[in-house]
């Protein structure tokens, strides 16, 4: 027991090197149990020290492994004589194993690490692989060579027969140009070339955007394919492996240029260039995602030309790879659209309309993807509306009654209307119309009439495009009953109210005459638009009956001629169309239950046209022209330089008038006699007007005004104000009989 315990203690105290060097095949090979403790400590110290008897730890490790392997081979002779005999016959070198051979072999295989390690980035590794030249011990390059116009012209001439080496030089020059444009000093110093002149930058960029794509296509594929419709993937070229890194660096440089260039013309040229490199971008997903993110930003905030070009590139990406890019691009574009719709003004309306139409075009590429996005975002709108209807607080009302909510409703109505007829999006018509109607009914007050107009237009568009009946007319006719158009306006306004950029009216606006004028005009437009969408319906007389009754009631009660004239014209057109539909359907030979026959009859009526349809088309042209003239007129007025009218202050004007008309108000003057009110009569009487004419004639002849018959100025100056007032009234009027001559 004591021997076993001492052996366990000894093994526990050994290091790894001592354990491997000591040999542990049997207990007989270990040290005797009676070995003194001092000798064991000395042996351990010698094994630990690198300069000890065993040499370095690595050498002792190698000898331990070699001796272990040799002992295993010797035991193999006793355990498995047949296998040992097989080794003797076939692999004698394995049995003739020695410690020195193992140490030498292992020593040759080991690699000694340097004292310091240097880090290199992935871009440096790729650049070194592209260069084919080592960068030296510290990875530094030679001094950058400046690019000249002659070099660019030489590249342009030699690019007609493009080679991989020439492409690599052009890419390096473009990287230097990008570093210069971004203000990256470190990147410019690390480049092989250096751009120091703006003319060189423009020449290099022009060469790349105009000529490089064709040269690269010729290098990869040689001649153009006979079948022009067949798309050639760059990765299918045998030279793609050599050019891949250079093309990747080139595309990365183009993305950086698109992000940093501020000039609209340069950015437009770059976007056109990017459009030709779409297939190359699709080969590199990382670069493709970076480019799409930048394109969405240009689509929403750039100049008009840049927005159109960015959208064209976006739709090309989505058409080539719908599965990979359509859904993420739609999500990013919708979020950007909502963010830019927070504020609406006459100048922002064209941008919002452009985003609506282009986003609708992208959603129309795949109806299944469009349904997923539409369902998700319409549900979000419905949740906001439900919270506002249940809590009824100001904060929740504001989450619904804002421009972002209204523009989102109009977007999805436009999408469903444009994609229709689509079986995928048809289930969304009912929930979308319910959200719009709930938005109208949330706060049905006069201050939110502009918001009601926006919602009614969205419902009219949805009903007309999808062929679904939506009860829109009650929300229009309700306004005729709630507003008193006979009431005199509380104040006059200088300019009309633009309902297209307003959601809520102030209390002051409700008292203005411009509010009622604009409101009646909006009601006229909305009623005409909705009834026009139903003008071909076989049930038009019944649909228009509530409108006819309400318009007749309005004409009986309204006393304003301008309002009555507009409403009477609308009423006549509606009644004319109702009479036309009645006369046409009396000739029909089918029953009401025959849906196919009814649809065919309505289709034929729409193609032939109705009185209301013809009137609406003419009215629409005039209305659009009026809006365009109004917009252009505002622009012309802004361009004109009107003279500024400087008004004097009231106090200064009174002082100047007193100085100018001092003699007129001086009663003590000898030149001005006292006016005889009795002779003049009332200020507005014929006698007063005759006296004014006499005074004018006398003053023109240079004669002075005579004094009063009753006395001089000293006499009248002493009269009290009451007496002066009585004098001003004049003598009482005398009634005389009117005598007519025989001639009359």
Task: Please describe what this structure looks like.
The chain is an all-alpha fold and 744 residues long. It has helices at 2-13, 16-22, 37-48, 57-79, 81-90, 92-95, 99-109, 122-131, 149-158, 164-182, 185-190, 198-221, 240-260, 264-276, 278-282, 285-301, 304-320, 322-340, 349-363, 367-391, 394-400, 403-419, 429-442, 449-466, 473-482, 513-533, 540-557, 561-585, 595-608, 611-639, 650-660, 662-665, 677-680, 686-701, 713-717, 721-729, and strands at 145-146, 193-194. A two-stranded parallel sheet has the order 1-2. It is elongated. The model is unreliable at 1-8, 25-40, 42-62, 99-111, 117-141, 635-645, 664-717 and 740-744 (pLDDT under 50).
Summarize the structure.
The chain has 744 residues and is an all-alpha fold. It contains 36 helices and 2 strands. Helices cover 67% and strands 1% of the residues.
User: Low-confidence parts lasting 5 or more residues at pLDDT below 50?
Assistant: 1-8, 25-40, 42-62, 99-111, 117-141, 635-645, 664-717, 740-744
- Give helix % range: 55-70%
Describe the strand arrangement of the main beta sheet, using strand numbers. 1-2
What Rg, in angstroms, do the CA atoms define? 49 Å
- Number of helical regions: 36
Mean pLDDT: 76
Major β-sheet profile: 2 strands, parallel
**SS-based class:** mainly alpha
Beta-strand percent range: under 5%
Q: Total strand count, please?
A: 2
Shape: elongated
Kindly, what is the distance between the CA atoms of the first and last residues, rounded to a whole number of angstroms?
166 Å
């Amino acid at each position: 027991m004591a021997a076993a315990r001492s052996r366990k203690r000894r093994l526990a105290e050994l290091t790894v090197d001592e354990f491997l060097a000591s040999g542990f095949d049997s207990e007989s090979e270990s040290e005797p149990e009676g070995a003194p403790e001092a000798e064991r400590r000395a042996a351990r110290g010698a094994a630990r020290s690198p300069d000890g008897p065993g040499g370095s730890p690595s050498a002792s490790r190698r000898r331990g492994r070699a001796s272990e392997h040799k002992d295993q081979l010797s035991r193999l002779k006793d355990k498995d004589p047949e296998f040992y005999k097989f080794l003797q016959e076939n692999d004698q070198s394995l049995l003739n194993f020695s410690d020195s051979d193992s140490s030498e072999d292992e020593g040759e295989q080991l690699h000694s690490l340097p004292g310091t390690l240097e880090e290199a980035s992935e871009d440096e590794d790729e650049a070194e692989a592209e260069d084919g030249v080592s960068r030296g011990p510290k990875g530094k390059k030679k001094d950058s060579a400046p690019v000249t116009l002659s070099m660019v012209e030489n590249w342009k001439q030699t690019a007609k027969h493009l080679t991989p080496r020439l492409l690599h030089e052009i890419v390096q020059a473009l990287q230097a140009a990008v570093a210069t444009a971004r203000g990256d000093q470190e990147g410019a110093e690390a480049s092989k070339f250096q751009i120091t002149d703006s003319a060189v930058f423009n020449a290099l960029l022009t060469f790349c955007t105009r000529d490089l794509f064709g040269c690269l296509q010729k290098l990869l594929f040689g001649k153009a394919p006979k079948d022009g419709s067949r798309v050639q993937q760059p990765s299918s070229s045998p030279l793609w492996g050599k050019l891949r890194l250079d093309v990747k660096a080139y595309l990365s440089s183009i993305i950086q240029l698109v992000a940093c260039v501020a000039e609209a013309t340069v950015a437009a040229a770059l976007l056109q260039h990017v459009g030709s490199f779409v297939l190359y971008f699709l080969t590199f997903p990382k670069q493709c995602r970076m480019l799409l993110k930048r394109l969405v930003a240009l689509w929403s905030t750039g100049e008009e030309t840049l927005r159109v070009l960015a959208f064209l590139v976006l739709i090309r990406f989505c058409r080539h790879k719908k599965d990979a890019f359509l859904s993420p691009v739609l999500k990013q574009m919708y979020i950007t659209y909502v963010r830019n719709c927070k504020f609406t003004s006459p100048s922002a309306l064209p941008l919002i309309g452009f985003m609506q139409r282009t986003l609708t075009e992208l959603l129309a590429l795949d109806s299944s993807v469009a349904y997923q996005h539409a369902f998700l975002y319409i549900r979000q709108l419905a949740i906001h509306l439900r919270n506002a209807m249940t809590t009824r607080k100001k904060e929740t009302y504001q989450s619904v009654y804002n421009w972002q909510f209204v523009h989102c409703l109009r977007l999805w109505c436009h999408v469903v209307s444009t994609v229709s007829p689509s079986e995928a999006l048809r289930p969304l018509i009912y929930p979308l119309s319910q959200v719009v109607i709930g938005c109208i009914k949330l706060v049905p007050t006069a201050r939110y009439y502009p918001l009601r107009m926006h919602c009614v237009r969205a419902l009219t568009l949805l009903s007309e495009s999808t062929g679904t009946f939506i009860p829109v007319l009650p929300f229009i006719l309700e306004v005729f009953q709630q507003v008193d158009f006979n009431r005199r306006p509380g104040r006059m306004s200088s300019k009309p109210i633009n309902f297209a950029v307003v959601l809520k009216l102030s209390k002051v606006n409700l008292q203005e005459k411009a509010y009622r004028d604009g409101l009646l005009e909006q009601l006229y437009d909305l009623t005409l638009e909705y009834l026009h969408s139903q003008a071909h319906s076989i049930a038009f007389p019944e649909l228009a009956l509530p409108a006819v009754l309400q318009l007749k009631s309005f004409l009986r009660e309204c006393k304003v001629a301008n309002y009555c004239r507009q409403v009477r014209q609308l009423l006549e057109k509606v009644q004319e169309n109702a009479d036309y539909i009645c006369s046409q359907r009396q000739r029909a030979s089918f029953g009401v239950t025959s849906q196919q026959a009814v649809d065919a009859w309505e289709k034929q009526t729409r193609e032939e046209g109705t009185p209301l349809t013809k009137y609406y088309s003419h009215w629409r042209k005039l209305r659009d022209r009026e809006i365009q003239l109004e917009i252009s007129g505002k622009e012309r007025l802004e361009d004109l330089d009107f003279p500024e009218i400087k008004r004097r202050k009231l106090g200064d004007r009174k002082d100047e008038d007193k100085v100018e008309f001092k003699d007129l108000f001086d009663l003590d003057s000898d030149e001005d006699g006292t006016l005889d009110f009795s002779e003049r009569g009332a200020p507005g009487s014929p006698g007063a007007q005759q006296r004014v004419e006499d005074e004018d004639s006398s003053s023109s002849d240079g004669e002075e005004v005579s004094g009063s018959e009753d006395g001089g100025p000293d006499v009248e100056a002493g009269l009290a104000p009451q007496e002066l007032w009585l004098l001003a009234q004049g003598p009482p009027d005398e009634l005389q009989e009117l005598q007519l001559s025989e001639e009359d």
